[in-house]
Amino acid sequence: MSTVLVVDDEPRIRKALQVNLVARGYTVSLAATGEEALRSAREEPPDLVLLDLGLPGISGVDVIEGLRGWTEVPIIVLSVREQESDKVAALDAGADDYVTKPFGMDELMARLRAALRRGGADGPDPVVRTGHFELDLGAKRATVGDEEIRLTPIEWGLAEQLVRHPGRLVAQRTLLHEVWGPQYDRETNYLRVHIANLRRKLEPEPSRPRYFITEPGMGYRFEPDH
Fold first, then answer.
1. Are residues 72 and 169 in the same domain?
2. Gap between the Cα atoms of 160 and 140, Å rounded
């Protein structure tokens, strides 16, 4: 039995989706805000997310980016926004599909089933803990001891790519493509600068890195505590 997280600020829509999903055998979690959605997803990871873009507080796109920090759970966006730029923003952030309101329930259920077949919610724990620092990938929060550490978006992107593959080499080109974009192939100096900043903020001894390891000429590796 798959669990669907429904995120919408309109009670009527939440109720209608809940009734239809339960009738088709799904378990349903509900959230009215983006903050509630991220908290719910961390506490009880769903198998699929139905997400409205126009939320109070943090936006639907912010929710997508927060989820994509730690999970590949399928995300279907539901929105009254019909502009191409809105769809592109949601898909670029990591959404799997986009359905414009009002929608037919049969069509939505067909898309939901297809998304569940394509994907899954397996992924690393949203909170990565080491003996020196903690990364909450869903909330995009880094702490060293009791102190919250601010990471730039680039530093977050690099950290996420590395901690998703603990103990494995991540090639320079892969990091450049994933964090900066496919047009970046040779800017390895970018990596050196930002990895150095990441170490300065998170490593106990930045000059002797323990967690973010350089593989000379090849890439970088996150080495978790054993």
1. no
2. 10
CATH code: domain of residue 170: 1.10.10.10
Nearest alpha carbon to residue 97 among 82, 117, 81, 112 = 112
Q: Is the pLDDT of residue 83 over 80?
A: no
Nearest CA to 121 out of 70, 64, 63, 59 is that of 70
Q: What's the domain range around 25?
A: 3-118
Digit-coded pLDDT (tens) for 211-223: 999 999 899 999 9
**Rounded CA gap, 139 and 159, in Å?**
14
Query: Model's pTM, two decimal places?
Result: 0.63
Using the 3D structure, point to which of 76, 95, 118 is the last residue of a domain.
118
User: Is 92 within 8 Å of 53 (Cβ atoms)?
Assistant: no
